[in-house]
Design a protein that fits this description.
By secondary structure, the chain is α+β, with helices and mostly antiparallel strands. A hairpin with a 2-residue loop joins β2 and β3. Bound molecules: adenosine-5'-diphosphate and zinc ion.
Length: about 600
Amino acid sequence: MKELIFLEPVVKKLIWGKEYWTVSAHESGDCLVKGGTFDGMHLSEVWRDHKEVFGVETEGEFPFIVKVIDARDPLSIQVHPDDEYANENENGAPGKTECWYVMDCDRDGSIIIGHNAKSRKEAEEMIAENRWDDFLREIPVKKGDFYQITPGTVHAIKQNTMIMEIQKNSDVTYRLYDYNRVRDGVARQLHVDKSLDVMMIPHKDADCYTNKVPGKLVSCRYYDVDRYDISGVRDFEKRDSFMIISVLDGEGGIDGRKIKAGESFIVSGGYGDFSIFGRLSIMVTRLPELYGGLEAGGTKMVCALGYADGTIIDQISFPTATPDESIPKIIDYFKGKDISALGIGSFGPVDVDPDSETYGTILDSPKLPWQHYPIKKVLEEALHVPIKIDSDVNGSCLGEMTFGCAKDLDNVGYVTVGTGIGAGMAVNGQLVHGMGHPEFGHILVSKLPGDDYSGKCPFHPTCFESLASGPAIEGRWGKKAADLSDRCEVWEMEADYIAQGLMAMVLTISPRKIILGGGVMHQLQLFPMIRKKLSEKLAGYIHTKELDDMDEYVVPASLSDDQGIMGAVQLGVLAGIESKANPVKAYYG
Ligand code: ADP
Ligand code: ZN
């Protein structure tokens, strides 16, 4: 359906200023449609009775509220719960996530995001003693700033600030402090205990999950928000689902309608191509795209659905059998889930060269039924979505680089020590590929005196995997690795081989951090031993600030063994971005 929906804002006069609910179907402020096919109807009615306008099959409430907040005085200090807490404590209500674009503020304006308490006890004391200046983290703000406010973030807008806010359709707010204000003799209710329950302690600023796409303000599981600065004309390509356009600054027009700062309107799903002209900045809000991730492991297949911010909303796993058995299960899982793209982290060897004719085909795998199986092509034909594939370990490395302990690092190594040994690596922010993917598990190591184990690798008797994988430990000592925890000599030897492997990695790709995952690394006593041996082996030959802090240099995987599946979903996100030639336009493709 081709329709622009303009709405009459609901105006709320509050103790501190005014709120304009410019797009809302919430019961406490349901906007009326102004003109067009649905003139005079409430947005909630259009949403309920005319789903074709929106082009989505979402159940439940209209997903967003867009507000302009015009604060003359400071707003109260508040914090929102997440879904889980709100569900339990607010009669099944959803939690709240919101984001703010600063449209205007004082030249020396400020905003409150976060607090300075290190523990709940300290927070309780600071609050009880009214030490608000010590407690609250007040930071400078300027026009054009953008903040994602996740549940648990203590926040407040200060005086003389105008904000465009996009939020989930939810209104659960806990008020922590209201500057002791009274109106008509009464103070507004505070919710100190609930605030303390949900508060993130210590505070951490939210990531904006922009995936390095120009103009992207935030992509999370609730919304996807982009900003465009238009001077002249800008074309937007048609999409199936609706979007909300909010004018942040300036004025212009769309299909004969004038639009100006502060206004928001809905572009129906299936509207077709359109152009916006003028001198203006706009914000475009959409439902986020859902991505699929497949971690194709030698022993099990993990399939998951997730968003660009790393949230996994559903996950299943089953043992890896033959392609005939496993592939239909995978297709079954993803079919009809409306994913935008799929990422695969696969056992290897697998062709990961996008320029190769056999891109996405399993190569000479020891798992015979999978040899030369074109897994990417088969899934593409069944699911009709863009797919990106990489080695399982590169996938885990990407997971840690996007969501985990290697965030924002340019050179990173991820080593798994499990049934096999493998490494994912990134150099200059890019996962390493060449003619193939790295096969780090098969570098040669020096066999230790007294080790008479013959080795597990059929190709190389003294490669890293041959001497240090889980099955190698079992082969050498005659017991499962997990049952050898208290045998010091086992882990002395294991730590030495691992340190030899890591040394080779330090000396070649110069990683800023090395992350160790896989079943064997559940033996946490290995970490201090590996760090010590790595330092000894490097023997002072190189000095960097990273190597000076070994405890932070060689670390366990940080995502509770979800680095692989989160990395696979992130490969899907990248597949989505890359499938569209112009990444900005891409979001409307
Ligand atoms: P895979 O490499 O097959 O994906 P894992 O990373 O779980 O799977 O590795 C399995 C290997 O790790 C097995 O050889 C197993 O013996 C070993 N392993 C699993 N759990 C432990 C543990 N807690 N301690 C030591 N070794 C373990
Ligand atoms: Zn080998």
